[in-house]
Design a protein that fits this description.
Blueprint: H1 11-28, H2 33-48, H3 54-71, H4 79-94, H5 109-121, H6 123-142, H7 150-172
Helix pairs in contact: 1-4, 2-3, 2-4, 3-4, 3-5, 6-7
Length: 180
């Protein structure tokens, strides 16, 4: 048996969460991207051993994808986009949680909500990155032409996907949160 629970975040709720994100981004200004990424790895590592509902675990996986997107050398996220993602990760590393993570059953609920909002804000970046990962896997499986280098086909696909990402973001971002 499963149970679906829905709730609606009001304009004021979203503003409150945006304010929390802005506060963590202010703290992030004095932290290096490497420190924020290291903190994100610590958060993910700590949450891996905690019992939590599947919907929270799924959000933790999305957080891992954000970290992967920044660290993937083949993806080579441009500096401005990298800053947007690292700024979003700062909340999970530097913010004072609404619900402390150590509270059993509920500790990661606020993180799951914020992850979902960040994923929506970075939808175009994530879509492009996931398409890139899928393309890379397919090409590696099919690669049998020694005349075409891996870096060549990855660079061509990366450029196309980043162009698409930029166009989509400019055409219709959610706008609830301004990530630098």
């Amino acid at each position: 048996m499963s149970l679906r629970i829905s709730f609606e975040l009001s304009k004021e709720d979203l503003q409150h969460l945006a304010t929390l994100m802005e506060q963590s981004m202010e703290k992030a200004a004095s932290a290096s991207p490497e420190a924020i990424l290291a903190g994100a790895h610590e958060v993910l590592s700590a949450s891996a051993s905690v019992s939590m509902p599947e919907f929270m675990r799924e959000r933790q996986q999305k957080l891992q994808t954000l970290v992967d997107m920044v660290e993937d050398k083949a993806w080579n996220l441009p500096p401005g986009e990298r800053l947007r993602v690292v700024s979003a990760l700062a909340y999970f590393v530097l913010a004072d949680d609404l619900i402390p993570d150590h509270i059993p059953g509920l500790g990661f609920l606020d993180d799951a909500i914020m992850i979902e909002l960040v994923v929506r804000e970075l939808k175009h970046e994530l879509d492009a990155y996931l398409d890139f990962c899928q393309f890379r896997s397919q090409q590696e499986a099919e690669q049998d032409n020694p005349g075409v280098s891996r870096s060549s086909w990855l660079a061509k696909k990366r450029e196309a996907l980043m162009g698409r990402m930029d166009k989509r973001r400019k055409a219709g971002g959610l706008g609830w949160l301004k990530l630098r």
